[in-house]
Amino acid sequence: MSGVGGGATQSPPLLELRDVGKDYGSVIALDGISTTVRAGEVTCVLGDNGAGKSTLIKILSGVHRPDRGELLLDGRPVAFGAPRDALDAGIATVYQDLAMIPLMAIWRNFFLGAEPTRGWGPFRRFDAATARETTRRALAEMGIDLRDPDQPVGTLSGGERQSVAIARAVHFGARVLILDEPTSALGVKQAGVVLRYVAQARDRGVGVVLITHNPHHAYPVGDRFLLLNRGRSLGSFAKGEVDRDELTRLMAGGAELDQLTHELERPPS
Question: Domain 12-104+157-260, CATH 3.30.700.30 — does that match?
Answer without folding.
Answer: no
